[in-house]
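User: I'm putting together notes for a lab meeting next week and I want to include a structural view of one of the chains we've been expressing. I don't have a solved structure, so I'd like a prediction I can at least talk through. The sequence is below, exactly as it appears in our construct file.
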Amino acid sequence: MASRRPPAVVQDAMRALSLVTTASLLLSGCGGAVSDFGAGVGAAATAPLEDFNLRREYIPTVLLQAEANPYDLRNLNQCSTIGAEVARLDEALGPDTDEPPRQDGSYRSEQAADAAAKAALDAIRGTTTDFIPGRSWIRRLSGADQHSRHVQSAIQAGRMRRAFLKGIGMQRNCAPPAAPSWFRPKR
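Assistant: Thanks for the context. Below is the predicted structure for the 187-residue chain, given as structure tokens.
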């Protein structure tokens, strides 16, 4: 008698549950990581709400401004104001590629727990979105696909503006963060 395998969706759900269990066990010794993982599970489980455009990713104002006019230099006539604008962009986008990676002082076990948690959350997100038949059509019809493209466009404009401002900072002989981290102003 041939053994019957569960459908692929059930297998995916079982894999996600297994990853969640593994990540929970790994995170049991890391106080802060457990609460981060718990918050991530809720976000991953409600991922289909984004597909139906019932929940939208927030676009920071600084990125919307960059999208509207990435080369705007109004009120940016001093190194301190350029540096402040670059800092606003860094807050919205994360560190620039010229910044060295931060040494957070975490142990390898904590890094492994974080990696396991991320894998589990990705599996949960993938499993919950796989349950939606015709997902790409639903995303198009609900406007979620268009919003995702708008988010990516705003991120790209923010990166472009940050690079532009750092170039202006170099031209004006400004110190970082108004210029790239490797730049040393001439005296």
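A couple of points you could mention at the meeting. Confidence is low (pLDDT under 50) at residues 25-34. The two ends are 84 Å apart (CA to CA).

User: Perfect, that's what I needed.
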